[in-house]
Design brief:
mainly alpha, globular, Sodium/glucose cotransporter, 75% helix
Length: 553
C-alpha cells in the first residue's frame, strides 16, 4: 500500500507537469530555459522553496537541531530577509536587462572573460558538489525508508546505486527534456505536498509527546529542554550569533539573489510584479521553515535522548516512530519530490549556463536558438550521467563531507557576489577589477579554510590537550582558535570590494556603464513590495527576540 501511494502521487505530478507544459515552445531559449517568461507568483514561490529543500537539509538540519537546538534556524529564518533584498534590489535590475543567466550581466557589465569565469565556477560547484550530494543523500534516505536491501535482496551499496540512477534518470527527464516550466510546475505541486507532509511530522511528534495534545507536547519539550530553545549561539556553536551580522547574510543573499539554480525561477516571471510577489510569498513561507527543519530534531532529542548512533538519524527515526503507516507512502513521495527538485533544478541551470554562456559564446556564435537548446540538452545528459557515477562513490568518503558543503561553496559564492554587487552599485569599475577579485577571492578563501584553519586549529587543540583541557572547554578552544568560516567570508568580501574600488579609482572604465531596458517583460514594481518586505524582516527579528535569553527569562 505504501509503495502504491508513493508511485501514484509521483505519477500524478508527472502527468500534471506534462499537461501544463505541452504547449510551451521549447525550441527557443526563453521557452526552454525560462518557461516562456510566463511564471506567476505562486509557481515561482513553490519552485523556489522546493529547489531549496532536499534530503541533506531535511535530515541534516534536523540533525543539527537534535544536537544544538533552535539556534540553527538561522539558515532558514534569515533566508526570508535575503529574499526581500532580492525582490527589492536585484530582481528589478535582472528583469530590466532581460537576463537568462546571472553571468550574462557580468558579460555586459565587465567583459566576456569575466562572464566565462563566473559560469565555470557555477558549473564546477554543481558538478563536483551539488548534484552528486543531492543524489547520494536522496538514495540513502530512500534505501533506508523502504528497507530496499532487504526487500530486493541486495547489498546496501547496490541499493544506493539503484536509487541514485532511478532519481537521476527521472530528474534528467524533467530537467533536460521538459525545460524550466516542467521543473517549476512539478516543484509547485510537490511544494504543497512538502508543506503538508513536513508540518505533519512535528504535529504528530508533539501529539506523541503530549499524549494526544499538541500544546501539552510543546510545553513538555520546552520545559524539559529549555537550552534547546535559545536562538543565540555561543562561540562554539555551528552558527555563532555574531555570524548573523557578517558572512551569514552574504551567503543568504548570494544563494537567493545570484545562484543560478535559484534565481532562474524569478528570471522566468511574466513581469516584475509577479516575480516580486513570488519572492515575498516564498519569504513568508520560509519563516515557517524551522517547523519542518528544526523543531522535529528537538522533538527527536526529547523522545530518543542520547540513544541514537548519529544525530542525522533523528529525523528518519522520528518519522518511523510517530507517522501513521498509512501516510508513509505519501510522505515518501513528497520527499522524493524534494530530492528530485534540487537535482533537476541544478541540472536545468547547468544546461542553461552551458548553452547560453559557453556554447553560443565559444563553440558556435552563429547558432540558432534551436541549436543552443539542443547543445544544452546534450550537455545536460552528459552532466547527469557523470553525477550518477560520482554520487555512490561518496559512500566511501570520510565522515564530515556534508559538514564541509557550506565551506566548499564559499570558494565561489563570495567572489561572484562581490563582483555582482560592485557591478550594480558602481559605473566605472573596470573588468580587470572583477577578474582580480573573483580569482583572489577563490584562492584566498581556499587557502584560509583548507590550509590555514586545519593547521592552526590542530596546534591549538594539541596544546590544550597537553594542558589537560577536555570536554566543553576543549570545544571552546577549538572554536576560538580560528575565525568561523562565515566570518572569513565577510572579511574576504570587504577585502575584495576595497580592491575593486581602488582599481576603479586607478584605472576606471573609459565610459560609465548604463544598463539598457530590453522591454522583454514589464518592470513596473509591485506597489506593496517595500511595505510587505519590511513586515517580513520585522517578523524574523521578532522570532529571534522571542527565543532569546532576554525573553525566555
Amino acid at each position: 500500500m505504501q509503495l502504491l501511494t508513493f508511485l501514484g502521487f509521483t505519477a500524478l505530478v508527472g502527468i500534471i507537469a506534462y499537461l501544463s507544459t505541452k504547449n510551451t515552445d521549447e525550441t527557443s531559449s526563453d521557452g526552454y530555459f525560462l518557461g516562456g517568461r510566463s511564471l506567476t507568483a505562486g509557481v515561482i514561490a513553490g519552485s523556489l522553496l522546493l529547489t531549496n529543500l532536499s534530503t541533506e537539509q531535511i535530515v541534516g538540519l534536523n540533525g543539527q537541531a537534535f544536537t544544538e537546538g533552535i539556534l540553527v534556524m538561522a539558515w532558514e529564518s534569515l533566508a526570508a530577509i535575503a529574499m526581500v533584498v532580492t525582490a527589492v534590489f536585484l530582481l528589478p535590475r535582472y528583469l530590466k536587462g532581460g537576463l537568462t543567466t546571472v553571468p550574462q550581466f557580468l558579460g555586459r557589465r565587465y567583459d566576456k572573460t569575466t562572464k566565462t569565469i563566473a559560469s565555470a565556477l557555477f558549473l564546477s560547484g554543481y558538478v563536483v558538489v551539488l548534484l552528486p550530494i543531492v543524489l547520494y543523500s536522496g538514495a540513502v534516505a530512500f534505501s533506508a525508508m523502504f528497507d530496499l536491501p532487504a526487500v530486493l535482496g541486495i547489498s546496501r551499496i547496490q541499493s544506493i546505486w539503484a536509487c541514485v540512477w532511478g532519481i537521476g534518470i527521472i530528474g534528467s527527464i524533467y530537467a533536460v527534456f521538459g525545460g524550466l516550466k516542467a521543473v517549476a510546475v512539478s516543484d509547485t505541486i510537490n511544494a504543497v505536498g512538502l508543506l503538508i507532509g513536513g508540518i505533519m511530522i512535528p504535529i504528530f511528534g508533539l501529539s506523541y509527546v503530549g499524549d494526544g495534545s499538541i500544546s501539552a507536547g510543546f510545553s513538555e519539550i520546552m520545559t524539559s529542554h529549555p537550552e534547546k530553545f535559545n536562538s543565540i549561539g555561543d562561540t562554539a556553536a555551528s552558527v555563532p550569533f555574531a555570524t548573523i551580522f557578517t558572512g551569514m547574510m552574504l551567503v543568504q543573499v548570494f544563494y537567493w539573489g545570484t545562484n543560478q539554480a535559484i534565481i532562474q525561477r524569478a528570471l522566468a516571471a511574466k513581469d516584475l510584479k509577479e516575480g516580486q510577489k513570488g519572492l515575498i510569498l516564498a519569504s513568508f513561507i520560509k519563516i515557517l521553515g524551522p517547523l519542518i527543519l528544526v523543531i522535529p530534531g528537538i522533538i527527536a532529542f526529547h523522545i530518543f535522548g542520547d540513544t541514537l548512533a548519529k544525530p542525522d538519524e533523528a529525523y528518519p527515526k522520528l518519522v518511523s516512530e510517530v507517522l501513521p503507516a498509512s501516510l508513509v507512502g505519501f510522505f515518501a513521495a513528497v520527499l522524493f519530490g524534494a530530492i528530485l527538485s534540487s537535482f533537476n533544478s541544478a541540472l536545468n541551470s547547468s544546461v542553461t549556463l552551458f548553452g547560453v554562456d559557453i556554447y553560443k559564446e565559444y563553440f558556435n556564435q552563429e547558432a540558432s536558438e534551436k541549436q543552443v537548446v539542443k547543445a544544452g540538452k546534450t550537455f545536460g545528459v552528459l552532466l547527469a550521467i557523470m553525477a550518477m557515477f560520482i554520487a555512490p562513490l561518496i559512500d566511501s568518503a570520510p565522515e564530515g563531507l556534508f559538514g564541509y558543503l557550506q565551506k566548499v561553496n564559499g570558494c565561489y559564492s563570495i567572489p561572484i557576489l562581490t563582483i555582482i554587487i560592485v557591478g550594480y552599485l558602481t559605473k566605472r569599475v573596470p573588468a580587470i577589477a572583477a577578474k582580480i577579485a573573483i580569482i583572489l577571492g577563490a584562492v584566498f578563501y581556499s587557502i584560509s579554510i583548507f590550509l590555514l584553519e586545519p593547521n592552526i586549529v590542530n596546534k591549538a587543540v594539541a596544546k590544550a590537550e597537553a594542558a589537560g583541557i577536555t570536554g566543553d572547554a576543549l570545544a571552546l578552544v577549538k572554536a576560538e582558535a580560528y575565525p568561523h568560516f562565515l566570518h572569513v567570508m565577510a572579511i574576504l568580501f570587504v577585502m575584495n570590494v576595497i580592491i575593486m574600488l581602488i582599481i576603479g579609482q586607478i584605472k576606471p572604465r573609459t565610459e560609465s556603464y548604463e544598463q539598457e531596458y530590453t522591454r522583454q517583460v514589464d518592470i513596473t514594481p509591485w506597489k506593496y513590495v517595500n511595505q510587505v518586505g519590511i513586515i517580513v524582516c520585522i517578523i524574523v527579528v521578532g522570532i529571534y527576540l522571542w527565543f532569546s535569553p532576554l525573553m525566555m527569562g
